[in-house]
Write a structure and sequence with these properties.
By secondary structure, this protein is of the alpha+beta class. The protein has four helices and four strands; from the N terminus they run H-H-H-E-E-E-E-H.
């Protein structure tokens, strides 16, 4: 036999022995690895524990927030909720402007809160009624514009005309 053939046979036998040895070693290690994998019951227990920890931390955080809020509310003056906030530029409060606007539109139905606006270069409160807008001078309290009165004057009965009708009935054969 020549040296080259003997070397090839020795290499093949070595490879065979290594493969068989690796397979045997793998089989011996596999049962230990299989026992390290948790079962579904163990997983459920682990999930239940984590959920309990999460809920406990969540409750602690909520209690801390509630305590902080209670402390903040306790230190705030009780009258702050009823306080009327005014602009340093306006002499009247929004409530004063609303009262003046209600005097101008006695049956007014308020749509939104009174707002401080610029009305034709004058600082004014805009009071929005369902009948129209009313503007009150924020410093003098004078009535700048009464859109609700114009709506009432145009429609004294309070009824709205149906869409498409005209006062002079154009297009009608009853002239």
């Amino acid at each position: 036999m020549n040296q080259k053939t003997a070397f090839s046979i020795a290499a093949a036998l070595t490879a065979f022995v290594l493969v068989i040895g690796g397979a045997v070693a793998g089989r011996m290690i596999q049962p230990a690895a299989a026992s390290a994998t948790p079962t579904s019951a163990e997983l459920q227990t682990l999930l239940t524990q984590r959920e309990a920890e999460y809920q406990a931390r969540l409750n602690e955080a909520n209690q801390a927030l509630a305590a902080a809020y209670a402390a903040q509310v306790a230190t705030a003056p009780a009258a702050a909720a009823d306080q009327q906030f005014t602009s340093p530029l306006a002499a009247l409060t929004p409530q004063d402007a609303l009262n003046l606007a209600l005097a101008a539109v006695p049956n007014g139905s308020l749509l939104r809160t009174t707002e401080l606006v610029d009305f034709q270069g004058t600082l004014a409160y805009e009071v929005s009624f369902s009948q129209g807008l009313v503007y009150i001078d924020a410093n003098s309290g004078s009535l700048l514009y009464n859109g609700a009165a114009q709506t009432t004057a145009q429609n004294p009965g309070g009824f709205e005309r149906e869409h498409g009708q005209d006062d002079d009935h154009e297009g009608s054969d009853h002239d």
